[in-house]
Amino acid sequence: MLQRSPKLTAKIRRARRARMLKRKARYRARLRNGRRCASVEYGSAVIDLLIRLRWLTDRDATDDAKIGAAITRLIDNAAHAAQ
Length: 83
Prior knowledge:
Number of helices: 3
Order of helices and strands: HHH
Largest sheet: none
Helix content: 55-70%
Oligomer: single chain
Protein backbone atom coordinates (compact mmCIF):
# COMPACT_ATOMS: atom_id res chain seq x y z
CA MET A 1 0.00 0.00 0.00
CA LEU A 2 1.24 3.48 -0.87
CA GLN A 3 2.07 5.51 2.21
CA ARG A 4 1.78 9.28 1.95
CA SER A 5 3.26 11.68 4.40
CA PRO A 6 0.72 13.42 6.66
CA LYS A 7 1.73 16.80 5.21
CA LEU A 8 1.07 15.65 1.65
CA THR A 9 -2.26 14.10 2.64
CA ALA A 10 -3.34 17.34 4.33
CA LYS A 11 -2.23 19.33 1.28
CA ILE A 12 -4.28 17.06 -1.00
CA ARG A 13 -7.34 17.44 1.24
CA ARG A 14 -6.99 21.24 1.22
CA ALA A 15 -6.71 21.30 -2.58
CA ARG A 16 -9.79 19.08 -2.96
CA ARG A 17 -11.75 21.23 -0.54
CA ALA A 18 -10.75 24.40 -2.40
CA ARG A 19 -11.96 22.89 -5.71
CA MET A 20 -15.21 21.81 -4.07
CA LEU A 21 -15.81 25.28 -2.64
CA LYS A 22 -15.22 26.86 -6.07
CA ARG A 23 -17.72 24.44 -7.67
CA LYS A 24 -20.30 25.26 -4.99
CA ALA A 25 -19.77 28.98 -5.50
CA ARG A 26 -20.31 28.62 -9.27
CA TYR A 27 -23.43 26.52 -8.63
CA ARG A 28 -24.89 29.10 -6.22
CA ALA A 29 -24.12 31.95 -8.62
CA ARG A 30 -25.96 30.10 -11.41
CA LEU A 31 -28.98 29.60 -9.15
CA ARG A 32 -29.01 33.28 -8.17
CA ASN A 33 -28.96 34.22 -11.86
CA GLY A 34 -31.76 31.80 -12.71
CA ARG A 35 -29.42 29.57 -14.72
CA ARG A 36 -29.02 25.82 -14.82
CA CYS A 37 -26.30 23.53 -16.12
CA ALA A 38 -26.94 20.37 -18.16
CA SER A 39 -24.92 17.89 -20.16
CA VAL A 40 -25.59 18.18 -23.87
CA GLU A 41 -24.61 15.73 -26.58
CA TYR A 42 -23.52 17.29 -29.85
CA GLY A 43 -21.89 16.17 -33.03
CA SER A 44 -19.81 17.59 -35.82
CA ALA A 45 -22.85 19.27 -37.42
CA VAL A 46 -23.24 21.48 -34.32
CA ILE A 47 -19.52 22.35 -34.35
CA ASP A 48 -19.76 23.21 -38.05
CA LEU A 49 -22.80 25.43 -37.41
CA LEU A 50 -21.06 27.25 -34.57
CA ILE A 51 -18.05 27.87 -36.81
CA ARG A 52 -20.25 29.09 -39.68
CA LEU A 53 -22.04 31.46 -37.29
CA ARG A 54 -18.60 32.65 -36.12
CA TRP A 55 -19.41 31.80 -32.52
CA LEU A 56 -16.51 29.35 -32.53
CA THR A 57 -13.18 29.39 -34.36
CA ASP A 58 -11.58 26.41 -36.05
CA ARG A 59 -8.82 26.58 -33.45
CA ASP A 60 -11.34 26.36 -30.57
CA ALA A 61 -13.31 23.47 -32.11
CA THR A 62 -11.64 21.00 -29.73
CA ASP A 63 -11.84 23.12 -26.56
CA ASP A 64 -14.75 21.79 -24.47
CA ALA A 65 -15.13 25.01 -22.46
CA LYS A 66 -15.29 27.18 -25.58
CA ILE A 67 -17.71 24.79 -27.27
CA GLY A 68 -19.92 24.87 -24.17
CA ALA A 69 -19.90 28.66 -24.12
CA ALA A 70 -20.78 28.79 -27.83
CA ILE A 71 -23.66 26.32 -27.37
CA THR A 72 -24.93 28.42 -24.47
CA ARG A 73 -24.89 31.52 -26.69
CA LEU A 74 -26.69 29.58 -29.43
CA ILE A 75 -29.46 28.50 -27.03
CA ASP A 76 -29.76 31.98 -25.49
CA ASN A 77 -29.94 33.57 -28.94
CA ALA A 78 -32.66 31.13 -30.03
CA ALA A 79 -34.65 31.75 -26.83
CA HIS A 80 -34.50 35.53 -27.25
CA ALA A 81 -35.45 35.30 -30.93
CA ALA A 82 -38.49 33.21 -30.05
CA GLN A 83 -39.88 35.83 -27.65
